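Annex B. Sample input.
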Amino acid sequence: METWPQVRVDIDLRNELCFGCGKNNPIGLKLDFKWDGKQARAEFTPTKFYQGWSGIVHGGIINSILDEAMAYAALSEGRHCITARMQTRIRSPALIDEVLVITAFVTKKSRKVVETKAIITLKDGTPVAEGTSSQFVVKSKPSGSSQSAGKPRKARS
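Annex B, continued. Sample output.
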């Protein structure tokens, strides 16, 4: 993470195709985070299409959920980021058709890097997974009229 090339990203998310939060992505997770000023929160019920072993949510899906949550937390703090490093700890298997509660928050931020943490639990509070990430702050691509005013609604990881 010593050197990061200058990256410009199109932050206009109106096409809603992000795998994590895009409402128009037919195979996406369609996560709908809410920000309370300190943390992002969403609920997600994985279907059989997100399983690895029969009845168990694929670990890559768990990682995607954590990554999306941490990106949303960074975005909610006013930073457009790309995940540079992520560490995940699976604490127990997540089962298909069981509601997952996802929370995420920023732990540290500087001009170029935002550090975040996310946690997935069951509705009863049983821990499923947790993750931390370092995210590089990126610049927006110049755009004529396609930029939406203000903060985009959803984060892209």
